[in-house]
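QA checklist item 7 of 12: single-chain prediction sanity check.
[x] sequence parsed
[x] length recorded as 203
[x] structure emitted
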Amino acid sequence: MAYLLIILAYLLGSISTAIITCKLLGLPDPRTVGSNNPGATNVLRYGGKKAAAVTLLGDLLKGLIPVLIGQAWGLDYTGLILIGIAAFLGHLYPLYYGFKGGKGVATAIGVFLGVNFWGGLAFVATWMLMAKGFKISSLAALIATALSPLYFWLITGHGGLTLGVIFMAVLIFWRHQSNIRKLLSGEEDKIQSREGAEQDGDD
């Protein structure tokens, strides 16, 4: 049953909330504008807060739901993180979109919250504090990601789970290579919605 859930988690993770949301709302395909990333931050820039919120929630649920089902089946931390990784890989390398997906932060949050609520909450709290302080989504995500293995090790003491979190963290950093280059050069965009950009343009 666990193997079946891993497959289903990958298939669920392969559904792009950003692409579907933008299509339903008549917005540009997020793969063709801005950072070309089908994720909530890029949708925020071109679709506004509501579209971004729907995208964020959908991507988070893709990671959360399969893990919660695994919990209901009584799987341990190792089984849960494997299911979570499957959903996470689905988002990064989606079957339905030529294996070209997003950067995985929101789906990772869903996985983390499902595997261990307190570890996931620590990630979210770190992201929020860093986003409020630096106003740069990618930097906040990278800092929270870098700290996530430490959080899960301190909270659970489970080696297999921590290794799974490290694996996800490495992939998140890998997918953020362009953001890291922009951060180092001081060119990374700050968090801003379409509405905010329009207001700034009027000032």
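[x] summary fact logged: The chain has a mean pLDDT of 92.
[ ] second reviewer sign-off
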